[in-house]
């Protein structure tokens, strides 16, 4: 037990400073960092700033997973702002032996709460190939990580469903003039159709606009039944039927 005794750390890189920070936070009264040059001038100054969780060793995965939590709350924990952005990591594999290693590692990473996905070449093509013949230069494919706090809320606790899904895809397009609309919409629909076989039968509720037939897919069956019962109580005549029509329970609509 070192509490109460002075601690001396040699080296003021990220490792030494992190140890010092955590010791002080844990209540160690006297922590000294000895740095022969400038704090952070060693390898730390060269780092790209990526925080990779996709390792093959379980201890590494768990350490980095916990450090992501730390960086997410960095300002709260340290009192200093941090421009921390979650972009994800992408690995391209070209041989079967590599794939085997990554498949086993991805299973282990998921068991430890890291949302790693293996994408097949077909899925990659569906996600990216459309860009090659872009009809709409202002198009955007959004791939949003859906885990974290979203998954910690019980699926039945709110109307927002599909909390167990790992990713949320959006295909957004913009066109400069009225005439360009139809081809761009057609191109967008084709892209979505190509993605569909690789996705779950689910919608994110905020992305529904003019697809009335898809509204039900945004909710799990219990949430849908609850919302319909609410409509029956509060809006039995279904005055509020747009943009997303939830028909009152007992009405003719399915
Ligand atoms: C190009 C590059 C990119 C990288 N990108 C990433 C990345 O994206 N993500 C990632 O996680 N990691 C990355 N790394 C790795 C990462 O930078 C290192 O793992 C990390 O900075 C090591 O920190 P450290 O505190 O152990 O070492 P250092 O930062 O080197 O700190 C050691 C300190 O000890 C001091 N010191 C040494 N001997 C003594 C002594 N006798 N007395 C007093 N002081 C002494 C040195 O002056 C130095 O300041 C990258 C590394 C490089 C080179």
Question: What molecules are bound to this protein?
Answer: flavin-adenine dinucleotide
Give the helix tally: 8
| Strand line-up across the major sheet | 1-2
Measured by DSSP, the beta-strand proportion falls in: 5-15%
N-to-C order of helices and strands: EHEHHHHEHEHH
How does the major sheet shape up? 2 strands, parallel
Query: Measured on Cα atoms, how large is the radius of gyration?
Result: 25 Å
Look at the helices and sheets and give the structural class. Answer: mainly alpha
Question: Which residues form runs of ≥5 with pLDDT under 50?
Answer: none
- What coarse outline follows from CA principal-axis ratios? extended
Mean pLDDT: 87
In whole angstroms, the N-to-C terminal distance is 67 Å
In which range does the helix fraction lie? 25-40%
Topology, number of strands: 4
Walk me through the structure.
This protein is mainly alpha-helical. Among the domains are: 120-202, no CATH class; 215-254, no CATH class. It contains 8 helices and 4 strands; from the N terminus they run E-H-E-H-H-H-H-E-H-E-H-H. The chain has helices spanning 14-25, 58-72, 74-78, 96-111, 121-128, 149-152, 181-195, 221-234, and strands at residues 7-10, 31-34, 140-145, 167-172. The strands form 2 sheets. Strands 1-2 form a two-stranded parallel sheet. It has a two-stranded antiparallel sheet with strand order 3-4. The relative contact order is 0.07. The mean pLDDT is 87. The protein binds flavin-adenine dinucleotide. The site of flavin-adenine dinucleotide (FAD) has 20 residues, from helix 1.
């Amino acid at each position: 037990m070192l509490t109460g005794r002075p601690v001396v750390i040699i080296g003021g890189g990220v490792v030494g400073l992190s140890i010092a920070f955590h010791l002080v936070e844990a209540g160690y009264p006297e922590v000294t960092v000895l740095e022969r040059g400038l704090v952070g001038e060693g390898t730390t100054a060269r780092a790209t700033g990526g925080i990779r969780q996709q390792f093959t060793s379980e201890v590494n995965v768990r350490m980095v997973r916990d450090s992501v939590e730390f960086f997410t709350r960095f300002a709260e924990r340290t009192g200093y702002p941090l421009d921390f952005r979650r972009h994800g990591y992408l690995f391209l594999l070209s041989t079967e032996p590599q794939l085997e290693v990554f498949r086993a590692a991805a299973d282990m990473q998921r068991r430890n709460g890291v949302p790693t996905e293996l994408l097949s070449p077909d899925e990659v093509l569906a996600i990216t190939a459309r860009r090659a013949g872009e009809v709409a230069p202002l198009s955007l494919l959004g791939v949003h990580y859906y885990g974290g706090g979203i998954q910690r809320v019980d699926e039945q606790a709110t109307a927002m469903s599909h909390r167990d899904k790992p990713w949320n895809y959006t295909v957004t397009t913009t066109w400069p003039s009225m005439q360009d609309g139809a081809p761009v919409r057609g191109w967008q629909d084709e892209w979505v159709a190509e993605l569909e076989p690789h996705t779950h039968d689910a919608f994110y509720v905020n992305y529904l606009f003019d697809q009335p037939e898809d509204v039900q897919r945004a909710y799990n069956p219990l949430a849908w039944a609850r919302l319909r019962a609410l409509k029956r109580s509060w809006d039995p005549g279904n005055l509020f039927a747009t943009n997303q029509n939830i028909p009152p329970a007992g009405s003719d609509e399915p």
